[in-house]
Amino acid sequence: MEGSLKELAEYRLERANEMLSASESNLEIGQYKTSLNRAYYAVFHAMRAANARKGFDSSKHSGVIAFFTKEYLKTEILDRSLSLIIKESSLCREKSDYDDFYVASRIEAEEQIKNAKYFVQKIEEYISAMDK
């Protein structure tokens, strides 16, 4: 069972990195709203990767975030400041996906990509350390 959870976490980290790449590509062609969406999903898939190592998943974003926060941030396994990245990326995604008149900027997209890269890196480091 542990092997399959490890493989699942690795797969989800690959998805997180695919979302980062897509976010950067969208940024370069001026699709800032889509870039914000993909940056959020990089963070989301990284959380799911960490959660997979504990055998948890949820069909709801709120469930994924709540479990990650409870298991990793409140226990200080990971730095609590990561919660700000989760909140900000989620808010940006919601605005860009659902607010018809929201205008996303290049600067905002660049900031979210930078934060998502940092977040994914921290999850990769944590999961890598688990395997040593």
Secondary structure elements and pairings:
Elements lengths: L1 H27 L3 H21 L8 H13 L8 H17 L7 H25 L2
Helix pairs in contact: 1-2, 1-5, 2-3, 2-4, 2-5, 4-5
What is the CA-CA span between the terminal residues?
Answer: 18 Å
Low-confidence spans: pLDDT under 50, at least 5 residues?
A: none
Total helices: the number is: 5
Largest sheet: number of strands, sense, barrel closure: none
Radius of gyration: 14 Å
Helix content: over 70%
Strand content: under 5%
**Element order, helices and strands?**
HHHHH
Q: What structural category arises from helix and sheet content? A: mainly alpha
What would you call the shape?
Answer: globular
Supply database-style keywords.
132 residues, mainly alpha, globular
Q: What's the quick description here?
A:
With 132 residues, the protein is an all-alpha fold.
Describe it:
With 132 residues, the protein is mainly α. The protein is built from five helices and no strands. The protein has helices at residues 2-28, 32-52, 61-73, 82-98, 106-130. Helix 2 (32-52) packs across helix 3 (61-73), helix 2 runs parallel beside helix 5 (106-130) and helix 4 crosses helix 5 (106-130). It is globular, with a radius of gyration of 14 Å. The model has no long low-confidence stretch (mean pLDDT 96).
